[in-house]
Automatic annotation (TrEMBL), chains A, B, C, D, E:
Annotated TM spans: 304-324, 336-356
Cellular component, GO annotation: plasma membrane
Name assigned to this protein: Magnesium transport protein CorA
Pfam families assigned: CorA
NCBIfam families found in the cross-reference section: corA
Function: Mediates influx of magnesium ions.
Gene: corA
Key word Transmembrane present: yes
Membrane association type: Multi-pass membrane protein
Biased composition, class Basic residues, residue ranges: 1-20
Native organism: Aequorivita antarctica
Keyword Transport: yes
Keywords assigned: Cell membrane, Ion transport, Magnesium, Membrane, Transmembrane, Transmembrane helix, Transport
Source domain of life: Bacteria
Subcellular locations according to the entry: Cell membrane; Membrane
Organism classification: Bacteria, Pseudomonadati, Bacteroidota, Flavobacteriia, Flavobacteriales
Amino acid sequence: MSAKRRKKQQTTKIQPKRAKNLSPGTVSYTGKKTITNTQLDIIDYSKEHYNRFETHAIEDAFKYEDSTHITWINVNGLSNADDIITLGNHFELHPLIQEDIVTTNQRPKIDEYEEYLFIVFKMLHYDDNELLTNEHVSMVMGKDYVLTFQEAEGDVFGDLRERLEHGKGRIRGVGADYLMFAILDAVVDNYFTVIDFLSNKLELLEDKLFGDKEDPNITEDIQELKKEILKIRKAVVPLREVINRLEKIETPLIEERTNKYIRDLYDHIIQVNESVEIYRDMIWGLMDMYMTTISNKMNEVMKVLTIMASIFIPLTFLAGIYGMNFKNMPELDFKYGYYYLLGSMVLVFFAMIWYFKRKKWL
Amino acid sequence: MSAKRRKKQQTTKIQPKRAKNLSPGTVSYTGKKTITNTQLDIIDYSKEHYNRFETHAIEDAFKYEDSTHITWINVNGLSNADDIITLGNHFELHPLIQEDIVTTNQRPKIDEYEEYLFIVFKMLHYDDNELLTNEHVSMVMGKDYVLTFQEAEGDVFGDLRERLEHGKGRIRGVGADYLMFAILDAVVDNYFTVIDFLSNKLELLEDKLFGDKEDPNITEDIQELKKEILKIRKAVVPLREVINRLEKIETPLIEERTNKYIRDLYDHIIQVNESVEIYRDMIWGLMDMYMTTISNKMNEVMKVLTIMASIFIPLTFLAGIYGMNFKNMPELDFKYGYYYLLGSMVLVFFAMIWYFKRKKWL
Amino acid sequence: MSAKRRKKQQTTKIQPKRAKNLSPGTVSYTGKKTITNTQLDIIDYSKEHYNRFETHAIEDAFKYEDSTHITWINVNGLSNADDIITLGNHFELHPLIQEDIVTTNQRPKIDEYEEYLFIVFKMLHYDDNELLTNEHVSMVMGKDYVLTFQEAEGDVFGDLRERLEHGKGRIRGVGADYLMFAILDAVVDNYFTVIDFLSNKLELLEDKLFGDKEDPNITEDIQELKKEILKIRKAVVPLREVINRLEKIETPLIEERTNKYIRDLYDHIIQVNESVEIYRDMIWGLMDMYMTTISNKMNEVMKVLTIMASIFIPLTFLAGIYGMNFKNMPELDFKYGYYYLLGSMVLVFFAMIWYFKRKKWL
Amino acid sequence: MSAKRRKKQQTTKIQPKRAKNLSPGTVSYTGKKTITNTQLDIIDYSKEHYNRFETHAIEDAFKYEDSTHITWINVNGLSNADDIITLGNHFELHPLIQEDIVTTNQRPKIDEYEEYLFIVFKMLHYDDNELLTNEHVSMVMGKDYVLTFQEAEGDVFGDLRERLEHGKGRIRGVGADYLMFAILDAVVDNYFTVIDFLSNKLELLEDKLFGDKEDPNITEDIQELKKEILKIRKAVVPLREVINRLEKIETPLIEERTNKYIRDLYDHIIQVNESVEIYRDMIWGLMDMYMTTISNKMNEVMKVLTIMASIFIPLTFLAGIYGMNFKNMPELDFKYGYYYLLGSMVLVFFAMIWYFKRKKWL
Amino acid sequence: MSAKRRKKQQTTKIQPKRAKNLSPGTVSYTGKKTITNTQLDIIDYSKEHYNRFETHAIEDAFKYEDSTHITWINVNGLSNADDIITLGNHFELHPLIQEDIVTTNQRPKIDEYEEYLFIVFKMLHYDDNELLTNEHVSMVMGKDYVLTFQEAEGDVFGDLRERLEHGKGRIRGVGADYLMFAILDAVVDNYFTVIDFLSNKLELLEDKLFGDKEDPNITEDIQELKKEILKIRKAVVPLREVINRLEKIETPLIEERTNKYIRDLYDHIIQVNESVEIYRDMIWGLMDMYMTTISNKMNEVMKVLTIMASIFIPLTFLAGIYGMNFKNMPELDFKYGYYYLLGSMVLVFFAMIWYFKRKKWL
């Protein structure tokens, strides 16, 4: 199918707003963030040249497309479907791609087209309330341009932009494929940060668990952590497959020298993945550990009860005996009867103590 | 084997009613719903043309078959085997297909024939009692027709029909293969709805678990949820394989441009599948969580008992001592003996309180 | 190796009785059932012709072998090795096959030979004591004959024989390969029956678990069920592989039109297998559920104890105070001292009740 | 690399004693058994001929090598490295093979060389103390000889030798490859015996678990069983791979007719493997079962306590009331006060009994 | 890409210090150990020749590169990035390799380049505090040289150096590929040592668990062990893949005769891996075992409590009865009332003892 024909199809098909059960290929934002103004952040660079500006007018983006420079258009805000459609049609993006860009629960994937690659991935970060949020990001990589679509402005690409501006690293001298790699590399680097944060939370929880103070919320905390690790997995596992496939794709869009970097990136995502699996194991194990600490505490409680009751119940019984009002109870008239009884009570007391010591309960 | 020969075989072989151990290829409805009248819902459309009517007479369906339009015949009610056989013979469906159409516990699968594709899948929905029910649906996709067979009229295809009627999306301009895709897409979309419902039930159960009020039915609720997730899995996992194979089938029945859509559909079913696996993990984990909450509660109960008993049993013992009737008990004659004793009892009381405070039980 | 040579080898090698560590290829019955008389049930049929008779004389079977009809020889009783050897040598069965026929713990498998296929499978049924028993069955399918070997007469093939006799279904008009398929189909159908029975037992156990009455045997029942599901798995899993391989075998013995039926059979065995896995999961989960019900019950027991003890121990202490015999206890002489005390006891009582109500223990 | 060159290398390289971190290819016994005299058991046979003798002189073995007979040299005792080296050099075994022969913790494997196959496997048996011990065995199979190396004389090959001597089975008439198969077959047969023994231990443990008598060592017994099953797995799993590869090797050393037997052997080892997995599951499940029996017992203990305490604590409180010494306690002066109280105590008693009966605790 | 060009790129790109989000290919040490002086340990050898010296000047290493001898340069200390860059540039190492050398959390991997192989692996050892530490090691193997980069001087290569010096084994006569193998072999051997140590810790923990003395830290110890086994897995699992790939690589750098040794190495790493999995299973099982021992102990505690309470609470009640002050209590006036009561108390006492004996609680 030629790009021309595809373009035509989409212009006839796309609807302004998409509800459930709409036709596949309909572009309708499904996320929560509502930035009414789509904001474009355009960087245009070559080895010698660097230019960056921001705009809200989609059309401003187009004048850079045909230049000999590499153009990186970062779109913030997906709620205005018209803007996405305008941009998408200009770059001749397939309707399904346009749909995926605004479908925020689309899982990470890679689609190969003749003239561009389309990659969906997730950006993860802990927000101010220490809640893990994930952001839907799409990327289109063409011959001399890269488009990225975010729900809201993130801070993950900051360093990358700086490197672009100051010409650090090899980034300025090479093509759009290297830029694509650098963006993915920034994302994977970010995963490491997220996992470090999670690992801290896990260690805090472990300390809480082994600590003296009881915290009835630990079960909920563990459950929370489980959900977070599942969220991370949901972002990482498919991205691993994406990068794996990226390594194997045969396309003129990716130069041979970039492959080494993608292979490196694949190593990193595997490392992320392994860490996720390990932390998953650890979190799942936490529940067992918590169970044993609960049982241990109950054991201690029971011991205190048992020791107190076992010592004093028999003694109370003895006292009860001599509290009876029988007429004929000779012991009551013994001169030292009371002292004899006190003495035997002390004996019983120490016998019990010795018994519990021997059982190592004391 | 030519379609002619196949047709012959089936007309001699098919029996009116099929019990267990009947010959394979026998058409006998195995479900519970008994709609005596098979109901046909026929949509005939092309880019310019749309026509829909309902009928109970099988033969009415045949006049549309040879037209240049796409014909979608939806059959509601599988209990009348004769109707299915009549229809099946007309479209030259293999006896095994006719059997699978009415065998409601047939698992999802795809069979390739020279002149049509046969797909079995399950429709899931929660009924009015919040019970998950699954409905057996079969689909035959030929060159210019699609047949679907349902046990009872469902509401999943409503939006699709509307899109067909109003010519929304690309659906009217393309072939039967796209209609097949659109039907499967509606089914997978429906799975998302079902999973959302399950996820709500899961969260309610979690709240119940962490809530104060004890609910002795939680174990049964968890078991119920386990069964539901297994039911969903049973529908989703084989459908994933079906769509995967659909993607790879090389058949003139599916146009090349539809492949992109099927790939997209595969992405969706994988997403459903991952969600199912995640919820499965969560539900299985619930049991552990419930166990810890039970243990936590028992711990609390035990502590109350231990504190009460540990404080009052020794005190009662002390009171017991001075309730004894020994003649010679000098303390009893002390002027302030009673007050001294009360004082030491208060001391013991606070010593115990301090002890339990230090142990963080209070 | 030609069939001739093979025949020679076996006639020199076979021993009358085989103990452990005998040479491989030795035919020695390893099962428990001892039917001294091997019983043959021979059905000879073609499209127009049907003939069935039973015999104890092996040689009677041979006169039908060369006819143009399909011959199905069902052998009941494997304890008489000589009979098996006679029959096996006549049909030129490889010594290893003869060994496998009488080795009742041989796992399901398929062996391809040039002139026949050899399939081992297991028949499962619950006996009168509701114990799951498995029966070793072997089948040899040659160009125009099928041999089946059972330990004891089963009832699984009854329907099949009837269909053969009355010419129902397609079975009479087609070759030995279809008969082989029909036999396997009857076996897989039987697995569904067995699983249904197991599912009933599982549900009964679940009801018992959630029921009021305590049943100390539940653990043993669960263990029993575990063993049964493992037994079923041991029969089903390898048979699935057998049928899978049967689907892929390239042999002139299986006609192309039978392949469709075998594929269908494969669908069924996969369905059986999935059910087994699901029930396995359910049974393994039962233990956890049982554990929580035990803990729940213990929780309830503990609460009763705690409430009774927490209410009455302090009250008893109060009574103990005023049971002391101190000379100087002014309260004892108060006119309404007793009533004041009774009043405060009632207060304490209701305070405790209120406390436990607030804790939702009452 | 030619056999000549290999031989040269090894004669220069081999060291008398090998400690950790020695050069790879160094022959140094790592086991525990110290039979100072290497003992050779040589069987030389052909269809008509059988000769067996034992010796301690390695050189005695060499005269048989070039004969037209099949020679099986079984070496007992691996502690004398020089003997192994002498023998190994004579048969031109690669230094790595010589190392593997004496490295008793080498896992089962198969190595293909041009002129021989080298197989390492484990022999398992329960010793007199019912401890599972594994013995390292290596086998070299050349054109007309088989070498086996054992740490100590085992009894597994006894039947095989007898069959060789008396010409039972097909063993005498065929080549060294069949002997290799027969040896492996004896080993796999032996695994069945070991698993039977384990299965008996498992059943005994289960009986213990469900029995009345408490046995505090059950946890240790289960742990022991776990270790044994892991030990068996460690022997069986890699041997399965070895036999699988043996089936697929293309080498002139194995005749085509032996393949059928190896396939059979593979069936057997798979069966062993499945049994191991099933028993593993059972043993792992034992822990859960034990846990529930403990909890059940605790439940019973708690019930006795609760019933006793709930009945007698209130009664004791009642008695305590009327043990008080208040001046003004009118009930004390009632004529039948005592009997009224006794009556109400009996009432309370039966009320409690009724309560516990209703709760099904009695 | 030619080596020349690569060299150029790296000299322009490398930064002195690398923080997070630096450009990929930037060489910046990420570990903790700060040895300011990079230390080189150079061994230069051939069959007849052996020379070793240490230096801190990177340039000293270069004069040996072009000799006909094999040169092994071991670099201790990675904190001085300039040194690594100087060395790396001299040997024309790709910037990504230089980055990996100093990135201490890089997971084990193998990268093939035209002129060298690059392998990353981990060295494990227990430090003086019995903490498991892992050290990042990289190795570059070229035609006639091997470079190894360690964070700090380890002792794992000591034996290897000795063998090199004294010409033991085949090591001196063969190429750099064999040296590479010998280094990896030393590392895998070291893993066995580490696992042995872990296995000892595991057994100690098991003894603790089954021992009488309670140790509240057992949960933490198990958790610690879990983390260690995960650490080992993280080193072993990817190295297994590395060696597997090493076995399959087709490169002129590895001579054919070395392949046999690599295959052997692969056997060893699989053995390590299996042990790791087994110990992992064992450690995970420990938690369950610990849980049962806790429950068992609680059971015992509960029994003591129940027995004491059940015996003495009824007796105390009896004593309470006759401690009441009713006017009309005829028993009190019986001559032997007291003795009758004592007698019945003894009866009750022994009845309880008998009851608990029958229940096997005593």
